User: What shape does this take?
Amino acid sequence: MAITRDEVLHVARLARLELTDDEIERFTEQLSAILEAVAKVSELDLSDVEPTAHPLDLVNVWAEDEPRPSIPVEDALANAPDREAGFFKAPPA
Amino acid sequence: MIDTLRLTAEEAMGLIERGEASAAELHSAYLDAIRERDGELHAYLRTVDEADGAGVPIAFKDVISSRGVETTAGSKILEGYVPVFDSTVATRCREAGLPLIGKTNMDEFAMGSSTENSAYGPTRNPWDPGRVPGGSSGGSAAAVAAGLAPWALGTDTGGSVKQPASLCGIVGLRPTYGTVSRYGIVAFASSLDQVGPMTKTVRDNALLYRIIAGRDPCDTTTVEPPQPVELPEREDLKGIRVGVPKELNEAEGIEPGVKEAADRTIELCRTLGAEVGETTLPRSVEYGLACYYLVAPAEASSNLSRYDGVRYGLRVEGENGVRSMYERTRDAGFGDEPKRRIMLGAYALSAGYYEAYYGQAQKVRTVIAQEHAAAFRSFDVLVSPTSPTVAFRLGEKAENPLAMYLSDVLTIPSNMAGLPGLSIPCGLSEGLPVGFQLIGPQFSENTLFHVGHALERAIGFDVVPGRLQ
Assistant: This one.
């Protein structure tokens, strides 16, 4: 196995996913197969190759700092599962 | 009586200009067609009753934010989400007067190649409802193929416009990265995502690309295409150098019927006056898929962290505090494929693995770009089948993620390099459409449209599925 059950649990915790036992088993097997396949990239010696993060050679794009209308608070909250007094409401941390 | 099965967007435009049909009549004809045929196909997740605009109606993949119209990205985690703003492509279509017909089905968060990963059930292929339409823009492809929309927008990250266009027998463009705004598109992998037109003809495709392309101050990765979009007219290929990359045309898994149809089309390029020669992309095809399945999930794991049950979408309450609410919301809201990719991405980015996986994949991406650039020193376009197979059966690959990933083995390499690609139907194999992929250098859309149009005229492919005639 390219990835162990404990590693899957660790990654699920990092990704804030509460997996069921069923899912842990299924994903351990599937992620192992996928990781074995993608590990193919390590076959290449690319020590003198620069990484590409973005397909276009863009330099910084600047804009004037001009105020323009933003989304009204009421709109911004329109899809919130819970709200109070003009704020998103979440359970205590 | 408007025959939506055959009508191209250009012909629909003519009907409107000559006063023979109004936008509202067209819109209503498509809604009628949807009522008649979409029960079986399920190309649409929802339709819009009123025509807003005086132009040719259009359908959007459900990953494209449309103000006031629910947008779910095919996920339960966004069920009921109604955008309070338009994506830039929606604004451009609105300004061009194109009324929205509805939002089309897709693999959840655009992750998939069959539209079976939609949380709202699969879409079926209009050529054979036992088969998939491809994906992730399968709803848009099926809608255009079945005459349920004259044209549609999809999005393409690893092949999600080109591959479903191929499997449904229509024309699909993945534009040069950066020529179409991503503002208001539900993000999957930001360095790869592009919106693209899905149409019955190459000319329709150019017309729609002309509407949506261009720099957008709301997306600083956008640029203005250096030349205006030209509507293709020429029907010969004199002066065009067509490169046939060996690895893309001889890849393992290409079905014999697909290879034959593509080879016939390559021969046709010669007949139409093109110079045809063999070329090579030695590492792009062999390592492209692995590169993509590190880069795209890594970006997805970051992009999908926003679904936390706080600002929009689903919330499932936890037992103790915000953390268990996050974890339960995300476990309940995401389907298997987003979960796999989020975990794969988080793993590839985690301490100890970053250099070996993500860092190395970014270097492979450089190699892929260099190999394509080298091929374009000798050729104007590179050609191959779009998909190794024709449409496969529902359920055939659903249990095996790796087998599904191979559906995009021929579309992924050029996508990694930010290059435009056009898929046109080039014939049938076992009664199902085969797509022919044309890849060009960055900003070469006009060349792709020219070559695609000339081939389309010479091939004379009938875009109406046999069973619907």
In short: The two ends of chain A are 36 Å apart (CA to CA). Chain A has a mean pLDDT of 93.
